[in-house]
Design brief:
By secondary structure, this protein is of the alpha/beta class. The protein is about 50% helix and about 20% strand. It contains six helices and five strands; from the N terminus they run E-H-E-H-H-E-H-E-H-H-E. A five-stranded parallel beta sheet has the order 3-2-1-4-5, with helices on both faces. Helix 4 packs parallel to helix 6. The longest helix is centred in the middle third of the chain and has 26 residues. The chain is globular, with a radius of gyration of 16 Å.
Length: about 150
């Protein structure tokens, strides 16, 4: 059934609501659970930055990467997640395309993620990672509607 389950997380408690659904799906299917966070890419600062600004930019990107890793380690240490032996990893880039690339590269079978309640105009202007993943992922995507504001 579902051997590899992916749970994208953005650091919010709302996104974490998907973990319970993923744990239940894992229990039913016996699959492996992977928690992932997409951090902004830290490969190169924009060209118009001075050397001092570029150094500050790179330091900030490194701090964000380390913060994301600590966040996932804390989640993986929660008793219910630890019992599932969930893996975790941080990837870099734009959330939607980076997640789809990871899904394809590592052959995940299903994605479980939370979708935020937004007005249609806000969704149109800001876009939606969940919408992107649903439209581009080659696997089923279980969307969990957020219950908290």
């Amino acid at each position: 059934m579902y051997n590899k389950i992916l749970v994208p997380l953005d650091g919010s408690s709302m996104a974490e609501e998907a973990i319970l659904y993923a744990l239940e799906l894992r229990r039913l299917s016996g699959g492996a659970l992977t928690l992932v966070h997409v951090a902004p890419s830290a490969t190169a600062p924009p060209a118009r930055y001075s050397m001092v600004e570029a150094g500050t930019w790179l330091l900030r990107q490194t701090q964000m990467q380390q913060g994301a890793e600590r966040y996932l380690e804390d989640l993986a240490a929660r008793p219910e997640v630890a019992a599932a032996r969930a893996e975790h990893r941080v990837i870099n880039g734009e959330p939607g395309p980076s997640l789809v690339a990871l899904i394809e590269k590592d052959a995940f079978d299903v994605v479980v993620m939370t979708t935020r309640r937004r007005a249609k105009l806000a969704r149109w202007v800001l876009g939606s990672t969940a919408d992107f993943v649903v439209q581009h992922a080659p696997v089923p995507v279980l969307l969990v509607r957020q219950t908290r504001e």
